């Protein structure tokens, strides 16, 4: 099993990156076939969540998951690490602005995971950047 998991020799961030990759991959696939979970995330404007919007969101999430997965296994590579920071920054901006500015998201069981993972990933990657890239 250890040959499948990324190395945690310098810390546990690679495991978090992998966890958010798996969660994002699940979310990306489900957005292609059902949208009830996304309607729950965007519960205050659920009528605006269409199957087309779900597939677009699924593609966006798949790309973020791909980048995070690459970073999990290449956490000491500057480009991979910085791209992972970017995925968390975009996700954090998206979900936080949809909550506080655009009013489509409210913290509930559908959205809290995305909000927590986004903020946790952004803060963790930013604060540990020198550690992993030095």
From TrEMBL:
Pfam families: Erg28. InterPro entries: Erg28. The chain crosses the membrane at residues 12-29, 49-67, 79-96, 108-127. One of its GO terms (molecular function) is protein-macromolecule adaptor activity. It is a multi-pass membrane protein. PANTHER family: ERGOSTEROL BIOSYNTHETIC PROTEIN 28 HOMOLOG, ERGOSTEROL BIOSYNTHETIC PROTEIN 28-RELATED. Belongs to the ERG28 family. This is Ergosterol biosynthesis protein. It comes from Kwoniella bestiolae CBS 10118.
């Amino acid at each position: 099993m250890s040959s499948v998991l990324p190395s945690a020799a310098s810390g546990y961030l690679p495991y978090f990156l992998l966890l958010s990759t798996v969660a994002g991959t699940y979310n990306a696939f489900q957005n292609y076939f059902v949208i009830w979970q996304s309607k729950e995330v965007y519960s205050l404007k659920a009528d605006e969540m269409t199957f087309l919007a779900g597939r677009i969101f699924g593609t966006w999430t798949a790309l973020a998951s791909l980048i995070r997965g690459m970073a999990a296994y290449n956490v000491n590579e500057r480009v991979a690490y910085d791209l992972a920071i970017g995925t968390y920054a975009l996700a954090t901006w998206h979900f936080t602005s949809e909550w506080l500015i655009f009013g489509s998201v409210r913290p509930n069981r559908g959205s809290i995971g995305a909000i927590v993972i986004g903020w946790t990933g952004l803060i963790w990657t930013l604060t540990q950047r020198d550690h992993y890239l030095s």
